[in-house]
Design goal:
about 150 residues, mainly alpha
Length: about 150
């Protein structure tokens, strides 16, 4: 079972998939929901500090490498900028909501990207992102358990 929980932990670190994909997989494997949720939340949060601290530097480096990478960075920055209204209006509450909504284009990776692009310090951004991940984890776990009970 530990091996499977480590697998769930790893899945939840993948951008786009995050805990929204890892939790249903773990519950589908028959693992206890609370253990799956904890492993997925921990894995989802692990890359966040690194992303917040180094995204800008990595973006600058990528821009200098090639025009294709520059277009990729521009696309990622536009994606973060599309969330600007939420962040500017609600500040850290907006960041938490952005991370908590279990829909495509949201999550801890997007929250960390937005925090980096808008220069929100790690000390301020991290509590909002943690709370958002916990809320998203609870929602996805409840939905996954409900779907598993119906099947």
């Amino acid at each position: 079972m530990l091996k499977q929980l480590i697998y769930i932990f790893g899945i939840s670190m993948i951008p786009v998939v995050e805990l929204r994909g890892a939790i249903p997989v773990g519950i589908g494997l028959g693992l206890p929901a609370w253990q799956v949720a904890l492993a997925a939340m921990a894995g989802n949060l692990l890359p966040v500090p690194v992303l917040i601290l180094f995204t800008r530097r990595v973006f600058e480096w990528l821009r200098s490498m090639s025009p294709k990478l520059e277009r990729l960075v521009t696309r990622l920055e536009k994606r973060a900028a599309s969330k600007e209204h939420l962040i500017r209006k609600y500040e850290l509450l907006g960041l938490m909501i952005l991370v908590a909504i279990p829909l495509p284009g949201t999550g801890a990776w997007t929250g960390a990207l937005v925090a980096a692009v808008f220069d929100i310090r790690l000390k301020r951004a991290m509590p909002a992102i943690i709370l958002g991940v916990v809320i998203a984890g609870a929602i996805v776990t409840l939905l996954s358990c409900g779907v598993a009970a119906v099947i």
